[in-house]
Request: fold
Amino acid sequence: MSIAAAPQAPARRPDRAAETTQPRLAAVPAPLPAPMAPRLPFVVLVSMLLVGGVVGLLVFNTSMQQSAFQEQRLQEQATTLAAREQALDGELKKMEDPHKIAAKAKNLGMVVPQNAAMLRVPEAKIEGEAAPADRSATPPLHPKVAKPYSVLVAEQKAAEAAAAKKKAAELAEKKRAQEAAEKQAAEEQQRTSSGDAR
Reply:
């Protein structure tokens, strides 16, 4: 069986009077403020961080300055040691000079051998015949070499120029002495003439 659709009643509209009335207002308690974190620990923490940072910067700056002073001192020491090393190298080269060694040997009475003998140790043999050294066989250390003509001329010109310079200085000195004597004589004469006028 089928159920017939029943006619629907029209929907009721609410009264207009009910629409115009406002709902009743009721007092609601104010919300509680959110709990605030205490400020003192935060301020202390920030202050400690700032103080720690400043102290850290001061310590770092001081250590850097000390390092700079130490670096400067070490640079000066290295420079001094490098100069000393160069001086010692120069002295060593002078001592190694064959002419100096030969001069010292000659001062000690050593002479150049004419014949040298060689000793071969493994075979126990002597090669050559050794002869006693003689002073006449020792050549002179610094043989005199004649100077070239251009050097002799230059030395002569330098000597002449030095003599001319010395003579000019002597003449200038004599002239100064003569002028001083004339000035002194003029002053004496002026004094005596002014003394007579009184």
Q: What stands out?
A: Strands lie at 118-120, 125-127. Helices lie at 16-20, 39-95, 98-107, 149-197.
